[in-house]
């Protein structure tokens, strides 16, 4: 008995942590997968409007200081070059966690609505299926907004639907975007976002630990997306899986601590 106790203790010491610490680490990392390694975006692919697949025009998406940064210092004109950075594999049932903050400059040649505006797309079509002149992926978006004027509410964690529809409050929503119940966040503070996606069933948006929006039955339909291959837009088809992407919409933004847990 003493031999086995000593052996177990030695193994723990060699691992550099106590039994309590080892158990804590195991619980914290249980099932979570790091999508962004803090060093590079080799596991990610780029599609920017007016450009071919995996042409990272202007080094729009880059890694600095352990963050994915969206920057435009190599742009002269925005020219509706809406872009997205896609993780390499699709997901269906999952819990996604990430942090973001609005920083730097807004491209004044971008549409006015893009000020302090970005997003995380999910259930997206494969970027390889997007023609050069397709502006938005057929997908669901967790829209991220920052406060513009003190005292004017501007919630974040909203839902937008380029080329898609969702069921909200018992019916297909007629609106392209649905506001969440989140509070308004100003300046360059870090905000924690979460998505809990159950295939083509219930979807939950969480901001800083609070559930701020729920809807269901994501499906192809609606407008907004343009320049797509018609074969990709089968209106009424439920979306049970797809790709996750970080958005470039004209406002500089940072992302970090991107993790996912498969729920099925």
From TrEMBL:
Q: Which GO terms describe its molecular function?
A: hydrolase activity
Q: Which InterPro entries match?
A: AL/BT2_dom
- Pfam families, alphabetized: 3keto-disac_hyd
Tell me where in this chain the 3-keto-alpha-glucoside-1,2-lyase/3-keto-2-hydroxy-glucal hydratase domain is found.
Answer: 31-261
So which domain of life are we looking at? Bacteria
* Signal peptide boundaries: 1-22
Alphabetically sorted, this entry's keywords are: Signal
What is the protein name given in its UniProt record? 3-keto-alpha-glucoside-1,2-lyase/3-keto-2-hydroxy-glucal hydratase domain-containing protein
Q: Which organism is it from?
A: Parafilimonas terrae
